[in-house]
Amino acid sequence: MKHMTLQRIAEVCRGVYYGSEELLDKEISSVTTDSRKVERGALFVPIVGVHVDGHSFIDQVMDQGALVTLSERELGPQPYPYIRVMSCLRAVRYIAEEYLKELKIPVVGVTGSVGKTSTKEVIAAVLARKFRVLKTKGNHNNELGLPLTVFSLKEEHEIAVLEMGISNFGEMSRLARIARPDVAVITNIGWCHLENLRSREGVFQAKTELLDWMKPEGRIILNGDDDMLCRVQGHKGIKPVFFGLNPEFPVWADHVEGLGLEGIRCRIHAGGQERETTIPLPGQHMVYNALAGVAVGLAFGMDLKEICSGIEGLQALGGRFNILTCGGMTVVDDCYNASPVSVKASLEMLQDGSGRRVAILGDMGELGDDEVELHEEVGRFAGMQKIEALYAVGPLCRYLAEAARRENPGLLVEHYNTLREFLPLVSGKTKPGDTVLVKASHFMEFGQIVDRLTGKKTHVEK
Q1: For the segment 395-413, what is each residue's pLDDT rounded down to a tens digit?
Q2: How far is residue 352's CA from residue 345's CA, in Å, rounded to a whole number?
Q3: For residue 114, which of 40, 186, 177, 194 has the smallest C-alpha distance?
Q4: Does the structural domain 6-87 have CATH classification 3.40.1390.10?
């Protein structure tokens, strides 16, 4: 890794180096927190978790060929070098910040309450038509995941698309300090992480911390149809580029036409050009994600034709409205996460399914003091949709189920307190020809439902 010598690492993470001075000028080959993935020449970062303490694997990884390890403890005389730090998590952030500075690779930072992962995927698909792109993988969007993504960057990469997820004030500043984006994209401000952020105003404040760490010549790209983001008129002299369905925006769309579960078609206007494109994933929210991708592509000098080519080649991710077909049944795997806004959007799309339309919904987390009211709101919404059955799982989903019954007494609604209670019954609740939506917050482990319905191990639950 470029210029990441043991001496530089010790300086950057405010650590104390113990070991042979002859090794100080050696560069590490990689960084890992996983003892099973240690490469020769790597830096090992032992994270102290709830159940496992990475320090217990230090001797093992050093025997496997790691060059150096961090440690929050005094290890005494050892045959290998180590760097003593106050906090491994803090140290890894400092190292990632320094490494990204060394590479001088342009960064697109993506955040928002809903849709940041799918927007990140669209942006990466667009940019990959012209550049060598590294994007955040999986859920590596937090204070450990973002540094690990940064460490995956190589000198041959030309752009990094980094997703940033938060749940409290100050977290975005710590992430953005690492990324220091050239382009900042915010998808929307919704009702998420309210346990700490309390209100949409709090969410807005926390998400827009991203803008404080932008490069001076950077670009701000915002959803102009969001009633809070449209208030941003500029930041440190940078005027935002708005996207949405408003023809007054620099990037906008019209002629939006749903194609059922096959996707959605629209006409995109940007940079004095217009072009019809088909987004191969369903839902109007995908139009907004595509428009964000258009705005980013234009910022990097792409034309609308090659941008739309990237959009049309987009593929679904597991757990994020991934459509699976098995045994004559269509399963919509949307169980990676859930918020009131995203559940409503998924229910709307379920109506485009064929046969019986079945919703299997689970608890939504981190909604704070309004969690009961917000589950009831989603239940009322579900009752108004053209679906034939609703199975609600989890203690909070009791309120969702009751609200759905009140809204639509003719709808088949069943509630189960736990996944363990519902899982053995799920196969009997569905049949060939059904379209089944599976949606819940990640902690509900609804991937097990998808696996049971499809007969495949597409999800690995802890």
Answers
A1: 999 999 999 999 999 999 9
A2: 12
A3: 186
A4: yes
